[in-house]
Fold:
Amino acid sequence: MTEQNLRAIARQIVDAGLSAADPLSAVKRAVSLKGEMLRVVDETIDLSQFDKIIAVGAGKAGAPMSAALEDILGERLIAGKVVTKDGHSGPTKTISISESSHPVPDERGVAAGKEIADLLKKHAGPRTLVFSLLSGGGSALLVGPAEGITLADKQAVTSELLACGADIGEINAIRKHLSLLKGGNLARLAGESKVVGLIISDVVADRLDVIASGPTVSDLSTWEDVREILQDRFGIWDKLPRPVVKRIEQGLAGEIPDTLKPGDPVMERVSNYVIASCRQAVEFAAQKAKDLGYPPLILSTTIEGETKDIARMHAAMAREVLETGNPLPRPCCLVSGGETTVTLSRDHGLGGRSQEFALAACLDIEGLDNVLLVSAGTDGTDGPTDAAGAWADGNTAARAREAGMNPREYLARHDAYHFFQKLDDLIVTGPTRTNVMDVRLALIA
Structure:
C-alpha cells in the first residue's frame, strides 16, 4: 500500500465524517412541517398558536442552518439575525447574516449582538416562536459585553485564556459571566416567547451549558468558579483588566446577579435539541472505513487533554496493532473524536491542535510502514490557519530532516503549520460552515 493510496482512503473517511455534520442536512433531519404541525425532533408544535416566528443565533454553521430553516418555514418566518465567522456566510432570504471575528471577538460581533437583543425585545410575547440557531464558534461571535465591560476587556481575557491552554468549558464559564446574552440571558430576553434551540455541538459530551456559552440554557458555573479558573487554576488574575476584576469581585459579593440557574421559570418555555455532534461524525467516518475494507474501532468521542499526549497514545495503539494485532488485526482504522488543547510557549509559531497532533505523532511512528495518522478539524480551520489539519506517516520525520527541518524543534515552538506546509502535508478543505470538534484516524494497512 503506497502512502498516496493510504491518504486517498483517509481523505474519504474524513470527508464522510464531515458529511454527518453538514448543517443544512442536520436541520432538515430534525425539523419538518405538515400543515400547521411542526415537528422538531420528538416535539410537535402547533403553529396556529403563534403569530410570529423569528430566528436568532451565532456560529460557524449559522448561514446553512438559517437557509434550511427558511426552506422549511417559508413565509411563516418573518425576521431573523444570525452572526457567523468571517468567510462562512451564505445566501439567505429572511434571516440577516453578518460576519465577525473568531476566536477573539470584535466590534462587528458587538453590533450583531445588539441587533439580536433588539429583535428579541421587539417581537417577544406569548404568541411568538423564537428559533435559536447555535453552533461552534458561537461563544466568540455572540458578543454582548456586560455593563462596565468593554470589548477590549473581553478580548484581553479571551486571549489570556487561549494562551494558557484553557479548555472551551473554562473559557465559556468566564464569557458567560461577562455577557448580557450568554448563560441563559438570550432566553431571558425572549420574555414570554416559546424558544426552540437547534444546536450543532462543538464540545465534549454535548454539554448544552457550554455550547456557544449556553445562551438558551441554565448555567451551572458560578462566580466562585470564575475566580478559581482565573486565579487558582491558571494564575492570570493579575493580568486581567481592572473592570473585569471589579465585576467578578462584585459578583462574589452578591452585588451582581449570577447567570440563569436550573429551575428558573424562564426554562419552562425553552426546548433545546442537539441535531449534530462529534459522535455522529465519528460514526459516519467509521462506517466509511468499514465500507472501504478497514474494519473500524471507535476509541472515544470525548477525548480531551494535551494534544501531544493524545497523539502519542494514538501512535502507541497503531504500534500495538502492528506488533500484536490488538485491539484489531490489520487492516483496520482506529477512530476518535473530541477536542484537545495546546499549551503555547511564549514565542510560538503557527498551527492548531490537529496539526500539532500529526507533528507529535510523526515522531512516534517514524520508520513504520503502512501506518497513517490523521487529525482534522470539522470546521475546516484548525487554529488561526487555512488548513483543517494534517497527516503523518512513518516517513514524515525523515522527509522533514531531508528538507532541513527538525521535527522536535518545530513541535517545541508549536509551528506545525509551517512544518507541514513545507512537506505539502496539510489537509485543506476550505470552510465547512460547521463544527463538531475534531476527527482523528489511525489507518493501518
About this structure: The two ends are 7 Å apart (CA to CA). The first helix runs from residue 3 to 20. The first strand starts at residue 31 and ends at 34. The CA atoms of residues 293 and 331 lie 8 Å apart.
